[in-house]
Amino acid sequence: MNSPNNQKGFSLIEIIVAFSIAVMSLAMLYNVQSNAARASILYEEYSVANRIGKSLLAETRSLISNGAVNSAGSFENKYFWEVSYSDYSPYPAPETTQPTGTLVLKNITVEIQWQSIDRARSITINTLKPDPTQFESVL
Asked: What is the torsion angle, in degrees rounded to the nearest 10, for the CA atoms of residue 86, residue 51, residue 37 and residue 79?
């Protein structure tokens, strides 16, 4: 006869507990991995949108010189962009005129929108650049 003290191996309860711990650990690792993959995709999307915005800002000199006020387009049918230009005045009152000989600035806004994994996302880039038309008479 076998006595209870001479048993070798694990009981069913011990195996079930060990299996449950292993399943919970794997589930947590899967969750961490999927969050990392999602974050990586999101980072790549923001990176592409930022490069598009910087590229559009680099093109603004020629667009302003041609008299464009707004322009829009898309990149890879995923990223939709819009560039708008307006005169910038540091003076609060609209009737105040700038002193002669001052630098004329353009307020440039670039907005890029795209549909991400879970929702629509966008970035907006604002900058001030000198109006290139004021330098045409100098050149």
From this structure: 60
